[in-house]
Design brief:
Blueprint: E1 4-6, H1 12-15, E2 70-77, H2 84-98, E3 102-109, H3 131-141, E4 145-149, H4 189-216, E5 222-226, E6 230-232, H5 238-244, H6 248-253, E7 257-260, E8 264-268, H7 269-280, H8 297-305, E9 324-326, E10 330-332
Parallel strand pairs: 1-4, 2-3, 2-5, 3-4, 7-9
Antiparallel strand pairs: 5-8, 6-10, 7-8
Helix pairs in contact: 2-3, 4-7
Keywords: Signal
Signal peptide: 1-22
């Protein structure tokens, strides 16, 4: 079966590749049974008010088959994705956690974003140019679909109106926690565009997943949104495993969200639909409670999911409230050195 991927936008780096998708098989895992949670009851629990559909928005078709499986949508700058301690643990962690079929979708950018202009967060951009390392990482992950693009900046000042309908709602922002004691994170236009690009990459990964659903005629039951540079620990002891993550599948089956800030978020498929429709084009208007309250990426995700993603309080910017619980999933691998 050919690998469903798009490499045309990557330049010479990707053109010589010929990659074959290695089909994953269902396996039994030590810490989780193969019983899938029942999510049919939550398929209609999330409203999608103030939604704007654009001409290229993927709308859900009618599915006749019952939802099944977990989709892991990985999106963002690849950064340290090709470090072995990162890529080698992504699939084992998620299969060990769920114990049944997991499908991966990767939308990655080869060029990293620059520093955030924030104290203690001004990390240098990390670019990925090693074709051999990329091939090794992708072979380990075995995604159902992959798209690697060169540039991380889809959203710019020039095309911002295509992504944000009411830009006045992202000025003079009320902030929960200021950046360096001065202003909201999104008050700075460079940081605002950076957050919008993060969202655009996630939306692209969701579109990859939705196209796969249309092809197979079946929705997933659970969707996980995450980033490429997380280092998962599959060797933690049983006590830590049950405390940190073992509860996640049952929690999601009740229509709730499990999250580690905006780094890793597991949700019912119906909530992922809301995330996509609201996130494709931000339509937050002056008459909405979200206006001037979305102060950073974690608040943007709260607006989309109804769950509180930040560790500093809530923005109260969403029109829904979703039960959530914090998981301890992984750590960000900041550098390519593992010493």
């Amino acid at each position: 079966m050919p690998w469903s991927g798009s490499f045309a936008r990557c330049g010479l780096l990707m053109t010589s590749w010929t990659v074959v998708l290695l089909l994953s098989t269902e396996m039994k895992f030590q810490r989780q049974s193969a019983t899938e949670p029942n999510l049919e009851d939550v398929e209609s629990t999330y409203t999608t008010s103030t939604i704007v559909n654009t001409s290229n928005t993927i709308l859900p078709p009618a599915f006749t088959k019952a939802p099944r499986g977990v989709a892991v949508c990985i999106a963002g700058n690849l950064r340290t994705f090709t470090v072995p301690v990162v890529f080698s643990q992504i699939r084992p962690f998620h299969e060990q956690l769920w114990g049944w079929t997991v499908s991966f979708f990767l939308y990655g950018t080869l060029e990293g974003a620059g520093p955030k202009n924030q104290t203690h967060r001004n990390l240098a951009a990390i670019h990925e140019t090693n074709q051999t390392a990329l091939k090794m990482a992708l072979t380990s992950l075995r995604p159902q679909a992959v798209e690697l693009v060169a540039n991380a900046e889809d959203v710019t000042e020039e095309n911002l109106a295509q992504y944000v309908l009411h830009q006045e709602c992202f000025r003079n922002i009320q902030f929960i926690e200021s950046v360096d004691g001065v202003e909201a994170f999104f008050e700075n236009r460079v940081r605002f565009l950076r957050g919008l690009n993060q969202l655009a990459h996630v939306i692209s990964s969701l579109e990859m997943m939705m196209r796969f659903e249309q092809t197979r005629g079946r929705r997933f039951k659970v969707v996980i949104l995450t980033r490429p540079d997380l280092r998962y620990d599959v060797n933690r002891n049983d006590h830590d495993w049950f405390r940190d993550v073992a509860w996640v599948p049952e929690w999601i089956s009740n229509g709730s969200v499990a999250l580690q800030m905006d780094h890793w978020v597991a949700m019912p498929r119906a909530l992922a639909e809301r995330f996509y429709l609201l996130g494709k084009v931000l339509s937050c208007s002056p008459s909405d409670k979200c206006c001037r309250k979305i102060d950073r990426s974690e608040s943007l995700w709260e607006y989309l999911t109804g769950a509180v993603h930040g560790n500093f309080g809530q923005c109260s910017c969403s029109n829904i409230t979703t039960p959530f619980r914090r998981a301890k999933v992984a750590q960000i691998q900041r550098t390519k050195s593992t010493k």
